[in-house]
Design goal:
Blueprint (H helix, E strand, L loop, with lengths): L25 H12 L4 E2 L10 E7 L6 E7 L5 E5 L14 E2 L2 E3 L6 E3 L4 E3 L18 E2 L1 E4 L2 E4 L7 H11 L9 E2 L5 E5 L3 H8 L5 H4 L1 H4 L8 E4 L3 E7 L14 E8 L3 E6 L2 E11 L2 E10 L2 H7 L4 H18 L16 H14 L1
């Protein structure tokens, strides 16, 4: 048997959680880099100029996959994700978001169209069999879930397989009205494995113990989880007087959606709090927060004032658990079947991808 392989029983009532080494072993972390993250759809964190053709450079999972990319929109309005590495000598081409009709490498002047096609290169007269398609910039798939852009290096599944179930379930969410407020973006780093952060997100069991302000607004008794092929949703119902989605007979306070492997989409009556978990090392993670507003009045009234507090409470718990993963007296635990089904689902998807 492969010593790095970890199996999780398919029945949550019989399963044990992964052994502690899933969160501490550098060899398992390296395996995740290649088999999980390099093979998954990832949220493309880039905002193009408001109008016209332009470019927005970004790095796919900086510090882990680390692929330099650029989001480009041509004069016809077609968007593409292209390699941001010059096909001549490997220099990074684009360094800032701007309006542009082409891209020129600052090292030797090679120029590319916003479709990635090679346009020109100084001093290449006499070069035989030049240019060829190898001199064009490589392109990656670009797909959307609502206003969110996704791309992938070598995806195992289509994006539709990941998010179609969520889209069908989230009929209360006005995706067409979501607008990114970049002024509210923020980033947090902490000393814990990325999967522990996902574990914590994927269960409501800790809410009464860790989040007193959240517990005062949602009904823990009616909190429930729905599982899909590569995603899940936790549904929190509002207590009387707390904000809820308009027209929702069940008075839904929030939909906490997760997309494999590392994206959390928290939908509230005012909009979306997007959390992207980026591994920075086997025992270090970064979480990027974005705020997308669909109802400005609801945001001003209810807003995200408590989200930072909840984040700090979550980080403190996750860092504490990371320390516990090194304890000589701990190996692995069990799942609470009704409350930790999404955690079990995540572990099965993760270990299957690593097999």
């Amino acid at each position: 048997m492969d010593p790095l392989r970890i199996d999780i029983h398919p029945d949550v009532r019989k399963a044990e959680t992964p052994p502690a080494r899933l969160y501490t072993d550098p060899a398992l972390y390296d395996r995740q880099r290649e088999l999980v993250f390099a093979r998954s759809w990832q949220y493309a964190r880039a905002d193009l100029p408001a109008t016209g053709p332009g470019i927005a450079p970004f790095t796919l999972l900086d510090g882990l996959v680390g692929e330099p990319l650029v989001l480009a929109r041509d004069e016809a309005g077609v968007e593409r994700v292209l390699s941001n590495v010059c096909t001549h000598r490997g220099s990074i081409i684009a360094h800032k978001t701007c309006n542009a009709t082409s891209m020129t490498c600052g090292y030797h002047g090679r120029r590319f169209g916003l479709d990635g096609a090679f346009r020109s290169a100084p001093e290449f007269q006499g070069a035989e069999h030049f240019p060829t398609h190898r001199d064009d910039l490589r392109s990656l798939p670009l797909q959307r879930f609502g206003p969110l852009r996704f791309t992938a290096l070598a995806p195992r599944h289509s994006l539709d397989e990941l998010v179609s179930d969520l889209a069908a379930r989230l009929t209360d969410v006005p995706f067409e009205r979501l607008v990114h407020d970049a002024s509210r973006d923020r980033t947090f780093e902490f000393a814990a494995n990325w999967a522990l952060y996902c574990d914590n997100f994927l269960e409501g069991l800790h809410i009464p113990f860790v989040h007193p302000t959240l517990n005062a607004t949602v009904e823990f008794e009616s909190y429930r989880t729905e599982l899909f092929r590569h995603a899940s949703i936790q549904i929190a119902h509002a207590k009387p007087g707390a904000p809820a989605f308009a027209g929702s007979g069940a008075r839904v306070a929030a939909y906490y959606a997760w997309v494999f492997p590392n994206l959390m989409l928290n939908f509230y009556p005012w909009g979306l709090s997007l959390n992207l978990v980026e591994p920075r090392g086997v025992e270090r993670s970064r979480v990027r927060f974005e705020t997308w507003i669909s109802d400005s009045a609801a945001f001003e009234r209810d807003g995200d004032a408590d989200l930072d507090r909840i984040e700090f409470e979550d980080e403190a718990v996750v860092v504490d658990v990371q320390r516990g993963m090194h304890a000589r007296l701990y190996e692995r635990g069990r799942y609470a079947p009704e409350r930790e089904a999404a955690v079990h689902h995540f572990h099965r998807l993760l270990t299957a991808a690593m097999a």
